[in-house]
Each structure stands twice: as C-alpha cells, then as structure tokens.
Amino acid sequence: MTTSSEPPHGDEPPAPWSQPPPYSQPPHQPRPTQVLSIIGFVCAAVAVLFVPILFGLAGIVLGIVGHTRGEPLGKWAAVAAGVGMILGFVLGIVVMSSMYA
Known about the structure:
mainly alpha
C-alpha cells in the first residue's frame, strides 16, 4: 500500500503566496483625468473676449459633466465659465456703448 503525501484535489489549502498579506494597501486607483475641467477653464477664458453665450455655456456644461465624473476641478470650471460669461457680456456692452457714444 502506497500513500501519497499530497492531499486530495478538493482539499488543497491555499498557497501562502496567493493571498496578499493583511497589512498591504488596496491597489492604487488612478486619479481621474481632468480633461473636461481644463477645457471648461479654457472656455471660461475665451468667453470673456469672444461669444460669451456660446463659450460660457460650453464651459458650464463641461464643468458640470467633469464634476459628475469625479473631477475635483469640475465645479470650479463651471463657476469660472459662468463668471467669464458674465464678464464677457459686461465687456461687450461697454465696448458697444463706447463705439456708439
């Protein structure tokens, strides 16, 4: 009668190297890219000088979408685009009134 030193296939204990040690940190989650927020800031800057309604609204939408996707600067991009849109309107009114005065 020969006995094998290996346990049956269903009762194999897990190898000690197959499980992470209890002190290890969870895998690193990549930071979300902030592409939408950056484009929102660019639209905010452009809205001050060119077509404020178009670029301001685009910046607000991009900032809100970026914020909902987890971008930390998304909220600030939307705020900056709103401020840029208002400043663009004010600047446009001032320039137009000085041209016709």
